[in-house]
Design goal:
The protein is α/β, with parallel strands linked by helices. It is built from eleven helices and ten strands. The model has no long low-confidence stretch (mean pLDDT 95).
Length: 273
Protein backbone atom coordinates (compact mmCIF):
# COMPACT_ATOMS: atom_id res chain seq x y z
CA UNK A 1 0.00 0.00 0.00
CA UNK A 2 1.32 3.40 -1.02
CA UNK A 3 0.17 6.71 0.46
CA UNK A 4 -0.09 9.61 -1.95
CA UNK A 5 -1.93 12.90 -2.17
CA UNK A 6 -4.75 14.12 -4.41
CA UNK A 7 -3.30 16.62 -6.87
CA UNK A 8 -6.35 18.91 -6.73
CA UNK A 9 -5.95 19.26 -2.98
CA UNK A 10 -2.67 21.07 -3.58
CA UNK A 11 -4.11 23.60 -6.04
CA UNK A 12 -1.08 23.56 -8.39
CA UNK A 13 -0.89 25.92 -11.35
CA UNK A 14 1.48 23.75 -13.41
CA UNK A 15 3.05 20.27 -13.46
CA UNK A 16 6.21 21.76 -11.96
CA UNK A 17 4.18 23.39 -9.21
CA UNK A 18 2.55 20.05 -8.47
CA UNK A 19 5.87 18.27 -8.05
CA UNK A 20 7.14 21.03 -5.77
CA UNK A 21 4.23 20.86 -3.34
CA UNK A 22 4.06 17.04 -3.38
CA UNK A 23 7.70 17.05 -2.29
CA UNK A 24 6.91 19.64 0.40
CA UNK A 25 4.34 17.18 1.76
CA UNK A 26 7.06 14.54 2.04
CA UNK A 27 5.29 12.24 -0.42
CA UNK A 28 6.18 10.68 -3.76
CA UNK A 29 2.84 9.66 -5.24
CA UNK A 30 -0.38 11.32 -6.39
CA UNK A 31 -3.90 10.72 -7.51
CA UNK A 32 -3.92 12.91 -10.58
CA UNK A 33 -6.86 15.11 -11.58
CA UNK A 34 -7.46 14.81 -15.31
CA UNK A 35 -9.22 18.17 -15.73
CA UNK A 36 -6.14 20.35 -16.38
CA UNK A 37 -5.18 18.10 -19.30
CA UNK A 38 -8.69 17.48 -20.61
CA UNK A 39 -9.28 21.25 -20.54
CA UNK A 40 -6.03 21.91 -22.41
CA UNK A 41 -4.42 23.89 -19.58
CA UNK A 42 -1.62 21.36 -19.08
CA UNK A 43 0.20 19.26 -21.63
CA UNK A 44 -0.28 15.58 -20.86
CA UNK A 45 3.18 14.65 -22.16
CA UNK A 46 4.83 17.43 -20.15
CA UNK A 47 2.91 16.44 -17.02
CA UNK A 48 3.91 12.80 -17.39
CA UNK A 49 7.56 13.70 -18.04
CA UNK A 50 7.72 16.15 -15.12
CA UNK A 51 6.28 13.66 -12.66
CA UNK A 52 8.63 10.93 -13.87
CA UNK A 53 11.66 13.24 -13.66
CA UNK A 54 10.84 13.98 -10.02
CA UNK A 55 10.16 10.36 -9.11
CA UNK A 56 6.48 10.93 -8.39
CA UNK A 57 4.21 7.98 -9.14
CA UNK A 58 0.65 8.31 -10.44
CA UNK A 59 -1.39 5.88 -8.32
CA UNK A 60 -4.71 6.69 -9.95
CA UNK A 61 -6.63 9.44 -11.71
CA UNK A 62 -9.77 11.45 -11.02
CA UNK A 63 -12.47 12.40 -13.51
CA UNK A 64 -14.69 15.41 -12.83
CA UNK A 65 -18.02 15.64 -14.61
CA UNK A 66 -19.57 18.78 -16.06
CA UNK A 67 -21.76 21.19 -14.12
CA UNK A 68 -21.33 19.90 -10.56
CA UNK A 69 -22.56 22.41 -7.96
CA UNK A 70 -21.42 21.64 -4.41
CA UNK A 71 -22.87 24.77 -2.82
CA UNK A 72 -25.56 22.76 -0.99
CA UNK A 73 -26.50 19.13 -0.53
CA UNK A 74 -29.60 19.71 -2.65
CA UNK A 75 -27.63 21.32 -5.50
CA UNK A 76 -25.10 18.49 -5.73
CA UNK A 77 -27.91 15.94 -5.61
CA UNK A 78 -29.34 17.49 -8.77
CA UNK A 79 -26.07 18.26 -10.59
CA UNK A 80 -23.56 15.64 -9.43
CA UNK A 81 -21.84 13.00 -11.52
CA UNK A 82 -23.65 11.29 -14.39
CA UNK A 83 -27.14 12.28 -13.30
CA UNK A 84 -27.88 15.51 -15.28
CA UNK A 85 -29.43 14.68 -18.67
CA UNK A 86 -28.25 17.98 -20.20
CA UNK A 87 -24.57 17.08 -19.62
CA UNK A 88 -24.66 13.36 -20.40
CA UNK A 89 -23.41 13.61 -24.00
CA UNK A 90 -20.58 15.91 -22.93
CA UNK A 91 -19.66 13.69 -20.02
CA UNK A 92 -19.65 10.59 -22.21
CA UNK A 93 -17.32 12.30 -24.68
CA UNK A 94 -15.08 13.34 -21.77
CA UNK A 95 -14.94 9.73 -20.60
CA UNK A 96 -13.78 8.59 -24.03
CA UNK A 97 -11.01 11.20 -24.10
CA UNK A 98 -10.09 10.42 -20.50
CA UNK A 99 -9.66 6.71 -21.24
CA UNK A 100 -6.84 7.47 -23.68
CA UNK A 101 -5.25 9.86 -21.21
CA UNK A 102 -5.36 7.47 -18.24
CA UNK A 103 -3.89 4.69 -20.34
CA UNK A 104 -0.98 6.96 -21.32
CA UNK A 105 -0.23 7.59 -17.63
CA UNK A 106 -0.30 3.83 -16.93
CA UNK A 107 -2.39 4.44 -13.80
CA UNK A 108 -5.19 1.98 -14.67
CA UNK A 109 -7.64 3.33 -12.09
CA UNK A 110 -9.99 6.28 -12.44
CA UNK A 111 -12.37 7.48 -9.73
CA UNK A 112 -15.45 9.66 -10.15
CA UNK A 113 -18.75 10.61 -8.55
CA UNK A 114 -21.56 8.65 -10.16
CA UNK A 115 -24.09 11.06 -8.65
CA UNK A 116 -26.86 10.32 -6.17
CA UNK A 117 -28.19 6.80 -6.71
CA UNK A 118 -31.90 6.30 -5.91
CA UNK A 119 -32.44 3.62 -3.29
CA UNK A 120 -35.90 2.65 -4.55
CA UNK A 121 -35.57 -0.01 -7.30
CA UNK A 122 -38.78 1.30 -8.84
CA UNK A 123 -37.38 4.80 -9.35
CA UNK A 124 -36.90 5.21 -13.14
CA UNK A 125 -33.83 7.39 -12.53
CA UNK A 126 -32.08 4.38 -10.99
CA UNK A 127 -32.22 2.50 -14.29
CA UNK A 128 -30.84 5.55 -16.11
CA UNK A 129 -27.95 5.81 -13.65
CA UNK A 130 -27.18 2.09 -13.88
CA UNK A 131 -27.06 2.29 -17.67
CA UNK A 132 -24.74 5.29 -17.61
CA UNK A 133 -22.40 3.73 -15.05
CA UNK A 134 -22.24 0.62 -17.21
CA UNK A 135 -21.35 2.66 -20.30
CA UNK A 136 -18.56 4.49 -18.45
CA UNK A 137 -17.23 1.24 -17.02
CA UNK A 138 -17.18 -0.40 -20.45
CA UNK A 139 -15.26 2.46 -22.07
CA UNK A 140 -12.54 2.36 -19.42
CA UNK A 141 -12.54 -1.45 -19.24
CA UNK A 142 -11.83 -1.64 -22.96
CA UNK A 143 -8.63 0.30 -22.21
CA UNK A 144 -7.84 -2.07 -19.29
CA UNK A 145 -8.68 0.61 -16.73
CA UNK A 146 -10.61 0.02 -13.48
CA UNK A 147 -13.28 2.47 -12.31
CA UNK A 148 -14.14 3.35 -8.72
CA UNK A 149 -17.21 5.24 -7.54
CA UNK A 150 -16.74 7.79 -4.78
CA UNK A 151 -18.60 6.93 -1.59
CA UNK A 152 -20.83 9.20 0.43
CA UNK A 153 -23.61 10.40 -1.82
CA UNK A 154 -25.69 7.40 -0.85
CA UNK A 155 -25.60 4.86 1.95
CA UNK A 156 -23.18 1.94 1.80
CA UNK A 157 -26.19 -0.37 1.55
CA UNK A 158 -27.54 1.39 -1.55
CA UNK A 159 -24.12 1.40 -3.20
CA UNK A 160 -23.52 -2.25 -2.35
CA UNK A 161 -26.88 -3.25 -3.85
CA UNK A 162 -25.95 -1.42 -7.05
CA UNK A 163 -22.55 -3.14 -7.28
CA UNK A 164 -24.11 -6.54 -6.65
CA UNK A 165 -26.67 -5.89 -9.37
CA UNK A 166 -24.14 -4.66 -11.94
CA UNK A 167 -21.50 -7.35 -11.35
CA UNK A 168 -19.00 -5.44 -13.50
CA UNK A 169 -15.48 -6.89 -13.21
CA UNK A 170 -13.61 -3.60 -13.21
CA UNK A 171 -16.06 -1.53 -11.14
CA UNK A 172 -15.44 -0.83 -7.46
CA UNK A 173 -15.36 2.03 -4.97
CA UNK A 174 -13.00 4.71 -3.84
CA UNK A 175 -13.78 4.58 -0.12
CA UNK A 176 -13.83 8.01 1.51
CA UNK A 177 -14.73 7.78 5.22
CA UNK A 178 -15.10 11.54 5.54
CA UNK A 179 -17.69 11.66 2.76
CA UNK A 180 -19.91 9.31 4.75
CA UNK A 181 -19.84 11.97 7.47
CA UNK A 182 -20.07 15.04 5.22
CA UNK A 183 -23.17 13.66 3.47
CA UNK A 184 -24.49 12.17 6.74
CA UNK A 185 -24.76 8.75 5.11
CA UNK A 186 -23.79 6.44 7.93
CA UNK A 187 -20.90 5.22 10.03
CA UNK A 188 -17.60 5.04 8.10
CA UNK A 189 -16.35 1.90 9.88
CA UNK A 190 -19.53 -0.07 9.21
CA UNK A 191 -19.63 1.29 5.66
CA UNK A 192 -16.10 0.04 5.03
CA UNK A 193 -17.11 -3.43 6.19
CA UNK A 194 -20.09 -3.44 3.82
CA UNK A 195 -18.09 -2.25 0.82
CA UNK A 196 -14.75 -3.97 1.47
CA UNK A 197 -15.03 -6.48 -1.43
CA UNK A 198 -15.21 -3.59 -3.90
CA UNK A 199 -12.66 -1.15 -2.42
CA UNK A 200 -10.01 -0.24 -4.97
CA UNK A 201 -8.58 2.84 -3.23
CA UNK A 202 -9.09 4.78 0.00
CA UNK A 203 -9.15 8.53 0.51
CA UNK A 204 -7.62 9.77 3.73
CA UNK A 205 -9.84 12.69 4.76
CA UNK A 206 -11.59 13.71 7.98
CA UNK A 207 -14.80 15.55 8.79
CA UNK A 208 -17.21 16.58 11.52
CA UNK A 209 -20.83 15.52 11.13
CA UNK A 210 -23.48 18.22 10.77
CA UNK A 211 -25.87 18.96 13.62
CA UNK A 212 -28.42 20.33 11.13
CA UNK A 213 -30.05 17.69 8.92
CA UNK A 214 -29.86 18.60 5.24
CA UNK A 215 -26.69 20.64 5.58
CA UNK A 216 -23.07 19.76 4.93
CA UNK A 217 -20.76 18.51 7.61
CA UNK A 218 -17.36 20.20 7.88
CA UNK A 219 -14.09 18.88 6.49
CA UNK A 220 -11.18 19.11 8.94
CA UNK A 221 -7.55 17.92 9.05
CA UNK A 222 -7.00 14.19 9.58
CA UNK A 223 -7.20 13.34 13.26
CA UNK A 224 -9.38 16.27 14.31
CA UNK A 225 -12.73 15.00 13.06
CA UNK A 226 -15.21 12.19 13.63
CA UNK A 227 -13.42 9.49 11.62
CA UNK A 228 -12.16 6.72 13.92
CA UNK A 229 -8.89 6.11 12.13
CA UNK A 230 -7.74 3.26 14.36
CA UNK A 231 -10.97 1.40 13.60
CA UNK A 232 -10.71 2.21 9.88
CA UNK A 233 -7.23 0.72 9.68
CA UNK A 234 -8.36 -2.26 11.74
CA UNK A 235 -11.08 -2.72 9.13
CA UNK A 236 -8.53 -2.47 6.32
CA UNK A 237 -6.44 -5.16 8.00
CA UNK A 238 -9.41 -7.42 8.73
CA UNK A 239 -10.57 -7.23 5.12
CA UNK A 240 -6.99 -7.82 3.93
CA UNK A 241 -7.21 -4.78 1.69
CA UNK A 242 -4.01 -4.03 -0.18
CA UNK A 243 -4.97 -0.79 -1.87
CA UNK A 244 -3.31 2.59 -2.25
CA UNK A 245 -4.45 5.52 -0.11
CA UNK A 246 -4.52 9.18 -1.08
CA UNK A 247 -4.80 12.15 1.23
CA UNK A 248 -7.55 14.52 0.12
CA UNK A 249 -7.84 18.01 1.62
CA UNK A 250 -10.42 20.31 0.07
CA UNK A 251 -10.69 22.97 2.77
CA UNK A 252 -8.23 25.11 4.70
CA UNK A 253 -5.65 27.60 3.52
CA UNK A 254 -2.43 25.86 4.65
CA UNK A 255 -3.05 22.44 3.19
CA UNK A 256 0.59 21.37 3.27
CA UNK A 257 0.66 21.91 7.03
CA UNK A 258 -2.67 20.09 7.38
CA UNK A 259 -1.30 17.13 5.41
CA UNK A 260 1.81 16.98 7.61
CA UNK A 261 -0.41 17.08 10.70
CA UNK A 262 -2.59 14.32 9.31
CA UNK A 263 0.39 12.10 8.54
CA UNK A 264 1.72 12.70 12.04
CA UNK A 265 -1.62 11.65 13.50
CA UNK A 266 -1.67 8.44 11.48
CA UNK A 267 1.85 7.63 12.60
CA UNK A 268 0.84 8.27 16.23
CA UNK A 269 -1.80 5.52 16.02
CA UNK A 270 0.64 3.06 14.50
CA UNK A 271 0.00 3.42 10.77
CA UNK A 272 3.15 2.57 8.82
CA UNK A 273 3.79 5.34 6.32
Amino acid sequence: MTIGVCSWSLRPDSPEGLTDVVSECGLAAVQLALSPMLDGKWSASETRRTLEDHGIAVLSTMLQTKGEDYSTLESIKLTGGLRPDEHWDTNLDTVKRAAELVHDFRAYLVTFHAGFLPHDPADPLRRVMIDRIRQVHDIFAEAQIDTALETGQESAETLRELLEELKLPRLGVNFDPANMILYDMGDPVESLKALAPWVKQIHLKDAVRTTTPGQWGSEVPIGSGDVNWAAIFDGVKSAQLEVDMCIEREAGEDRTADIHAGLAHLESIGVAL
